[in-house]
Amino acid sequence: MKRFSCKLCIVLLMLTGCLLLSGCGSDIFYIRKYEGSISGLEYYPDSSAARKQPAAVTTAEAPAETSAVTEAAPARGLLHSPKDIALHDTDGQGKNYAFTYAGASFQAVYTPDNWTIIDSYLITNSADIAVICEALRREHPIHGADMKSERTAADMAYEWEQHNLAYSLLPADSPYRANVKDVDINPADQGKSAYDLYLDRQG
Fold first, then answer.
1. Once rounded to an integer, what is the mean pLDDT over residues 41-51?
2. Mapping DSSP to helix (H, G, I), strand (E, B) and coil, where does residue 144 land?
3. pLDDT, tens digit, 9 for 90 and up, residues 144-177
4. Nearest-CA neighbor of 114 among 81, 141, 76, 149?
5. H helical segments located in the chain
6. Does position 3 have pLDDT exceeding 60, yes or no?
7. What is the DSSP letter of 167?
């Protein structure tokens, strides 16, 4: 009798367990896993929903990395305003000028509609070149190629940088290199490229 009761208990327990499992079988937890990490648990009261893969994972995607920087920002220079170079007339004639940049002294010569900066190739920072040109044009403006407009600091700086480029491209032993080491800012050279300047100096 005891043996029969034990068996009956075991059978009842098994049936109860099956009923519990069948009753809970519809309430399951679905673990969503992606990209090698568990993001969380989702609860589905209907077992049929658990067997269906979610249509889309709504997660914030990391911004795509660009392969290269397309446009670099201009490098900040040493100068903040035209006053920083202390441009001054050295002989009181409005012709020979001097200014200071990066602790060095430079000479600039003005003749009608022309600024010549001696050893201009030594100054390469675009932002600083523009500031220096602004100081020069405030002292003596230069006409544009049409002889009506006035050249801007940005326009003058472009010509200066084209001279620098021509100087850097020419071989050290080239006789034409000496012709571009000192920029001449004048109406005739407005908008010319380094190649144009090279051809002008060569001819």
1. 43
2. coil
3. 999 999 999 999 999 999 999 989 988 899 888 8
4. 141
5. 2-24, 47-50, 126-139, 153-169, 177-180, 194-202
6. no
7. H
pLDDT (mean) for 100-123: 98
Whole-model pTM? 0.62
* Domain coordinates in residue numbering, the chain: 26-52, 82-202
C-alpha separations of 15 from 6, 7, 9, 27 in Å: 14, 12, 10, 19
Q: What are the residues facing 183 on neighbouring strands?
A: 117
- How far out from the chain centre does Cα 30 lie? 46
Alpha-carbon span 158 to 130, nearest angstrom: 8
3-class secondary structure per residue, 71-110: CCCCCCCCCCCHHHHCCEECCCCCCEEEEEECCEEEEEEE
Alpha carbons 74 and 110: distance in angstroms, whole number: 29
State how far the alpha carbon of 53 is from the alpha carbons of 48, 56, 105, in Å: 10, 9, 74
* Cα 189 from Cα 195, distance rounded (Å): 12
Cα–Cα dist 152/159, whole Å: 11
Q: For residue 24, which of 2, 49, 47, 1 has the smallest C-alpha distance?
A: 47
